[in-house]
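Q: Convert this sequence to structure tokens.
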Amino acid sequence: MKKIIFYVLSLTAMAFGQTYAQTAQQHLNSAIQSEGNIRTGVVNSKEAVNQLAKEIAVIGNPNAVLFNNKMFEQINSVQNNVDDTDHFLNEAKNVSVIPFTTQAINTLTADLINLNDELIGLTYQIDELLNNNNNNAALNLLPQVKNVLDAQDNKAVEVINAIQTLKQTIKLYNVCLQTVDHLGNPVYDAELRGFWAQNQTTGEYIEPTNQDGNCFENLPAGYYRFDARHGYWSGVAPEWVTLSESLENEDGIIIINLVYWVE
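A:
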């Protein structure tokens, strides 16, 4: 391998290999955004609860219609965003290179809908009490409303955390190798007979996927050995690497330097 033509061709080839992996990640990001919308709604709804408490206890003139509207804004938001979350999860599942199940997350989103049912029941009770001028009884139910809203927020956080974990599980990495001397300077005329990688968990040996023979596309997360087939009088020191986002450069590629030696 006289010369490693490194980057432009590699990036072009990888762009196609990454399409499905990136799309799955994008769908999961959209699901996270949907759950973030639920959390924003919780904040707004708790402000409405505080406002109603003030209107009952201080002003003495509660606005039942406004409170009802604010609560149903949250109820509708939860329903719509849960539907969106489940939709984006299924879209990610359909295009992901690595299979996964959404069952655990779907259970969490179902919990959000159950909490919505509790919020609907409390909202109707408070509306009826206010219309019957039973303001103190309505005031006594507001802590329960807050508890349900807090539970929705906590459940949305659980969903977000589960999706973040899933993102890492199905994330694929692109790795490119380059030979360097002991000072870290690139070596372009290394006498080698090809690079290879090995997944240290599965034992699988992996060959480069790009034309120049120095890059590995769409590697699942894991712990790998990166090495080269040595020449007659030369070789490289292997590297063992756990793939992670922190190692990626701005182009989303992990660059690994293999120190080249010549006898």
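The CA atoms of residues 36 and 157 lie 8 Å apart.
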